[in-house]
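User: Just a sanity check before I run the rest of the batch. Below are the structure tokens for the first item. I only need the designed sequence back.
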């Protein structure tokens, strides 16, 4: 499987060069300088100039005045001035920047173009500190020539990461050229685009290996690069090739970026709204948004030209936002289980990529009409309104919360303020439970909190740990329960991944060590049984047939999602290892020096740092400002509050993404169930009540009843009488039985009894469900884990 790497350009000596360039800066004084005047003798042909002008707008904005724009631009100017001051255009082998040595390879070239891009964007933005300065323009021109001659031209070979040559550098080069194109000669423009033509002349295929057909985000990026490059040269064939690549005209549509795949896993969007990249990784939280950003750019730059995308294609693109992305956004951030290895990137937290999604949605809305425009703006307004932890319009740290590689400094802010000034109303939060069986993900939304799971199967990888990234993501696909709370919107962004105990992620059942000595890559899980059933917008069940990395630990695990909380059942927990087995109820990031009272059965639990407390058979526990926990069996719980220290470099050493070595210390509250060494058929039963008060916690046990918790069936009865059950094999509970593995929900729906069934294994043609002696054959072939609903 070809592995791609998208460069966030962060790390070591490159840190300052990289993250700033991917960021919308903030806090500064208003600047008033005029934008540079275009050259009357522009080398860009008049017929395709609107495409280039529109692409320039994505870099320099629309000059919509506001204090927030001024602050953003001043911060960009600060960075651009620093890069310009340290830039040398002496030539003769002298590096442009002393910390970015010249020479073959991909480690530094992208950062050179990224820094030059910052200078050029500031030069071309009205009000920028360098705006219109002829001396700066001459230096930009000289730098373009020097980098072309020494680093990136049509004769260089791809060394290192293919992405650098075929997508990363071309994008930054086009950002720069779109700003200064009117100031170049036709010969210069053609010269600098020669390597782009070599590496992206055919966006359908990998330039360094023509047997690789581009898919997903990589195809969309190359398509947009082709459209804009072709427009700069007046190469109409290249423009058309780029547009055709979006729907894979050359391949008969097989790799169309908007095709909805009706199969398990595989790169691209799927009929149930899933998005996969790298064949087996759920990636709405990175590659999917990169793809959407490119599609938004393609619509934007061609709008109103003879190359405008057809309306049916645009409608499909618009629909992607609500179908594939919006379900996984909480408080303006993308949820952790759809971010793959990007969990470890210091420069790309869930809020960073959430801002990029917001900007892509705003750009799409600008080209939409009617209800589509209203709906897109409503989502963007909602994310901006809820994003209090990382405010979209007012960001104090210019190296944080990036709006995406195509939109730096002013455009995102200007588009957002345009939208808000139009009176757009934020979308409402509505209860939802949605299963994405083709990527082994679900999302459960209530008006107060949300949740999701990180699981795996024979279809979906347990983790992605490649290119020096996600170095401690050992168990992110082993049944992690993620909970998202309104008073802790920065929980996973606030140095969570470099400081959390990676062996004790909430929801997982694991050994206390050792980890897989061969950890790395993108390994799929060993069992097919992963998935669940949706009953309604407020209820659902999910099952996971777990086996650890070496097969020495197995467990049957279920999560039952309700409006009040999540009931967690485990059975058949058996280990042949000499290591102790533990199930983590909670491991909450309380922040730097954070606190909060922990109660168990009404008594305060000691929280002295580093001192564990043994809670003997508690009925309930409550963590202040976090929520409650109800113990549904006679298990004892270990409580531990501790400070943990780690650096982003500990989990990401990627050549162009590595984090800083700065230590971060965060306080955690752990609640752990101890199963001992070599347990046989051990079990657990507890409920997690996100955001619950003490009173809510005390009364919550009345909300459901555990009906079964065995290696064959795990089931509860929810409030209202609905039964939610996961069968790992043929079995029965009460008057409900099944002929094989299934997730089942049954209850009253109005005046009738309704049955909902899914096949978590995605392997069966049908399953027979018997209810009170009446057998119903439920066809499941080709449903890929989707819920079938029948009246019985």
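Assistant: Here's the designed sequence for the first item:
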């Amino acid at each position: 499987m070809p592995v791609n790497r998208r460069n966030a350009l962060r790390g070591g000596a490159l840190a300052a060069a990289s993250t700033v360039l991917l960021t919308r800066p903030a806090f500064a004084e208003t600047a008033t300088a005029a934008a540079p005047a275009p050259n009357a003798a522009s080398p860009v042909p008049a017929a395709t100039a609107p495409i280039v002008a529109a692409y320039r707008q994505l870099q320099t904005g629309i000059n919509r005045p506001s204090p927030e724009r001024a602050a953003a631009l001043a911060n960009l100017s600060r960075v651009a001035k620093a890069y310009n001051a340290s830039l040398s255009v002496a030539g003769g082998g002298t590096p442009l920047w002393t910390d970015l040595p010249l020479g073959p390879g991909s480690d530094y070239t992208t950062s050179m173009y990224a820094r030059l891009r910052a200078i050029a964007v500031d030069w071309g933005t009205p009000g920028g500190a360098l705006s219109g300065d002829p001396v700066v323009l001459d230096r930009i021109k000289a730098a373009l020539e020097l980098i072309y001659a020494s680093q990136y031209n049509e004769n260089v070979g791809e060394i290192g990461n293919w992405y650098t040559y075929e997508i990363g550098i071309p994008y930054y080069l086009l950002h720069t050229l779109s700003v200064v194109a009117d100031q170049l000669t036709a010969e210069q423009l053609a010269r600098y685009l020669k390597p782009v033509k070599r590496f992206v002349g055919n966006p359908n295929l990998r330039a360094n290996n023509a047997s690789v057909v581009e898919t997903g985000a990589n195809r969309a990026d190359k398509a947009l690069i082709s459209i804009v490059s072709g427009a700069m040269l007046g190469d109409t064939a290249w423009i058309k090739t780029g547009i055709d690549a979006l729907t894979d005209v050359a391949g008969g549509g097989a790799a169309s970026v908007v095709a909805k795949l009706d199969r398990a896993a595989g790169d691209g969007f799927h009929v149930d709204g899933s998005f996969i990249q790298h064949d087996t990784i759920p990636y709405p939280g990175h590659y999917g948004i990169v793809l959407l950003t490119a599609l938004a750019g393609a619509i934007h730059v061609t709008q109103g030209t003879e190359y405008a995308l057809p309306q049916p294609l645009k409608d499909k693109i618009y629909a992607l936002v609500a179908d594939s992305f919006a379900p996984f956004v909480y408080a303006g951030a993308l949820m952790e289980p759809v971010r793959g290895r990007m969990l470890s990137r210091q420069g790309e937290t869930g809020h960073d990529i959430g801002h990029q999604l917001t900007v892509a949605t705003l750009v799409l809305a600008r080209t939409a009409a009617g209800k589509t425009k209203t709906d897109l703006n409503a989502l963007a307004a909602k994310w901006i309104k809820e994003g209090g932890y990382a405010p979209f319009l007012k960001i104090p740290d210019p190296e944080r919360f990036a709006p995406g590689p195509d939109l730096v400094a002013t455009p995102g802010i200007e588009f957002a303020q345009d939208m808000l000034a139009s009176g757009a109303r934020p979308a409402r939060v509505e209860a939802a439970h949605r299963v994405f069986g083709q990527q082994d993900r679900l999302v459960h939304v209530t008006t107060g909190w949300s949740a999701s799971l990180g699981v795996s199967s024979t279809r979906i990888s347990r983790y992605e740990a490649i290119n020096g990234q996600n170095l401690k993501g050992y168990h992110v696909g082993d049944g992690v329960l993620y909970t998202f709370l309104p008073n802790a919107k920065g929980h996973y962004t606030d140095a969570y991944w470099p400081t959390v105990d990676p062996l004790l992620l909430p929801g997982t059942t694991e050994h206390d060590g050792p980890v897989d000595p061969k950890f790395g890559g993108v390994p799929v899980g060993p069992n097919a049984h992963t998935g669940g059933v949706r009953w309604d917008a407020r209820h659902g069940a999910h099952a996971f047939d777990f086996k650890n990395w070496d097969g020495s630990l197995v467990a049957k695990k279920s999560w039952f999602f309700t409006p009040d909380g999540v009931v967690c059942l485990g059975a058949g927990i058996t280990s042949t290892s000499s290591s102790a087995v533990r199930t983590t109820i909670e491991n909450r990031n309380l922040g730097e020096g954070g606190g909060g009272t922990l109660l168990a059965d009404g008594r305060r639990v000691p929280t002295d740092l580093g001192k564990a407390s043994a809670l003997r058979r508690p009925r309930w526990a409550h963590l202040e400002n976090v929520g409650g926990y109800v113990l549904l069996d006679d298990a004892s719980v270990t409580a531990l509050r501790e400070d943990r220290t780690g650096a982003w470099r500990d989990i990401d050493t990627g050549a162009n993404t590595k984090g800083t070595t700065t230590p971060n210390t965060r306080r955690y509250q752990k609640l752990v169930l101890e199963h001992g060494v070599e347990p046989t058929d051990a079990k657990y039963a507890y409920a997690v009540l996100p955001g619950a008060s003490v009173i809510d916690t005390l009364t919550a046990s009345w909300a459901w009843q555990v009906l079964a918790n065995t290696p064959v069936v795990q089931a509860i009865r929810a409030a209202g009488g609905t039964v939610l059950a996961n069968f790992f094999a043929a079995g029965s509970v009460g008057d409900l039985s099944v002929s094989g593995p299934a997730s089942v929900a049954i209850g009253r729906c109005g005046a009738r009894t309704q049955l909902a069934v899914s096949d978590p294994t995605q392997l069966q043609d049908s399953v027979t469900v018997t209810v009170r002696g009446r057998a119903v054959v439920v066809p499941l072939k080709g449903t890929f884990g989707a819920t079938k609903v029948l009246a019985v």
